[in-house]
Amino acid sequence: MNQYSEKAILYLSKHFRKKITLEEIAKVAGVSPFHFHRKFVEENNCTPQNYLENIRMQHASHLIKIFPNWSLIDVAFESGYSSPGIFSRAFKKYYGITPSQHKLNSDLEPENIKLEKTKPIQIQYLTKKNIVVKKVSLIEKRLNQGYQKIINSTSSNQILFGVFMDVPFHVPLEKCRYFIGLETSLSEKDNTVLTIPAGYYTTMIIQGNFDHLKEKLVAKNNQIINKGYVIDSLIGYEKINANKKIPFDYRKTKREILMKIKRA
């Protein structure tokens, strides 16, 4: 992915709730609007505005499935739309069904998942962390290469962070916005920085592929709800302890998934 697209996608991912112009994104990418638009379409097979719409629609889809009791107006505003009417028309045009119909098609309840209803949730308060990031593909070979490149660039073992801007079982892996990086002293205003916000988090340890991640997340989400909490952010974070002496293998590596929560 060229640097123009990478900077633009990160910017859109951080600011998709507000009105964004082509000139604004091109300025972030550091090129003229005409040049940026042409390069972005060549690489992503869609315009920047189309890409922004994709982000908003995928965000809305997941909100509807995770928070079925939310009102349409809450989903609309949280997804970057100025009114429920505009949102509903955009949603039906994009998915071919209404938001209400979409709610009935939830696939977040796979069968044969055993819920640990009595197990207490471990909650901890985490301070804000700024992460200097780079977008990588969730296709396993490219994912391993991306992490290995960061590991090789450091002088010692480091804690690495992954940021899921999309949910890998709602969005095809090759289309997911996933960023990896290291903690930084740079400000969150920097165009290469994503912020893990301060707040209360619960965690789980995961090892395996994305099918295993889906099962664990669904079970964990039900456990969170049963204890009187809800997930407070649809952005997912994972923490990985890197070992320079061992070639990186994402599937075999134990990752700590961080989920921001709040009282229901």
Explain what you see.
The chain is of the alpha+beta class and 264 residues long. It folds into two domains: 3-103, Arc Repressor Mutant, subunit A (Orthogonal Bundle), CATH 1.10.10; 123-263, Regulatory factor, effector binding domain (Multidrug-efflux Transporter 1 Regulator Bmrr, Chain A, Alpha-Beta Barrel). 41% of the residues lie in helices and 20% in strands. It has nine helices and nine strands. Strands 1, 2, 3, 4, 5, 6, 7, 8 and 9 form a nine-stranded antiparallel sheet that branches. Helix 1 (3-15) packs across helix 4, helix 2 crosses helix 3 and helix 5 packs across helix 6 (84-95). The longest helix is centred in the N-terminal third of the chain and has 19 residues, at 48-66. The N and C termini lie far apart (40 Å).
Blueprint of the fold:
Layout: H1 3-15, H2 22-29, H3 33-44, H4 48-66, H5 72-78, H6 84-95, H7 99-103, E1 123-126, E2 129-136, H8 140-153, E3 159-164, E4 178-183, E5 193-196, E6 199-206, H9 210-226, E7 229-231, E8 236-241, E9 255-263
Antiparallel strand pairs: 1-6, 2-4, 2-5, 3-4, 3-8, 6-9, 7-9, 8-9
